[in-house]
Amino acid sequence: MLITHHLFGVENKIKNAxxxxxxxxxxxxxxxxxxxxxxxxxxxxxxxxxxxxxxxxYNLTTVDPPELVYFIRRHHPNVIxxxxxxxxxxxxIENGVPTRTMRFCCRELKERGGEGRFCITGVRWAESxxxxxxxxxxxxxxxxxxxxxxxxxxxxxxxxxxxxxxxSKHVLNPIVSWTDDDVWEFIHRHKIQYCKLYDEGFKRxxxxxxxxxxxxxxxxxxxxxxxxxxxxxxxxxxxxxxRRESGKGTKWATAQDVMDWWIYEPxxxxxxxxxxx
Length: 277
Known about the structure:
elongated, alpha/beta, 2 domains, Rossmann fold
């Protein structure tokens, strides 16, 4: 049973997170955005310690590491697994190649649910390239159409409490100031189960092949899960076929051309962005 609030070095952060969860608890309970990663198991455990009402949701993306899906089903059976209307493969055929600047996959697969609810996420500043030591405790972000921030973005601009006007929901980020050491100390001291992929050296457990990851990271993922590499190739091939049938041009001749460009050549918004993961 998780009862202690006195872990060395993080006791104040734990206490503050619990107080925030209790302070903003809505009558209907929170919508807890659960990814199965280390941050998600922490915020779920904190919600249990705080004794607040919530329903946890995992958005299945169809490109999730199989071990992660198995972990969630085995150790978090009360998490609701929400399946998408379209798979990643269908989205690629319809929308093209997902990149850092064209993240339709995140919007369609990871950002579903929570409309009209008060949501809990596990985003943290420590996952951002630009780390800030001091932030206002409660601020409301006002984003323009060209400054859309996705719920799972770990950015230094994240606040403890946010409002998303576009989706009519509020967001609470109770561990936004926690470091990686804070997260792992909490997990180990409370003996919280976590996905075994971390023990294999994985630093992030996002979608396989995500363009937000580094080139070495993506190559490692495709080596670990080669069937997904082949699935992407099939999707790229169908995408090219669909473009040709609709009369649209393309600079790629084969699915392998698309794959090579996708992994090695797309321009990056920020040369330091690869350090995110």
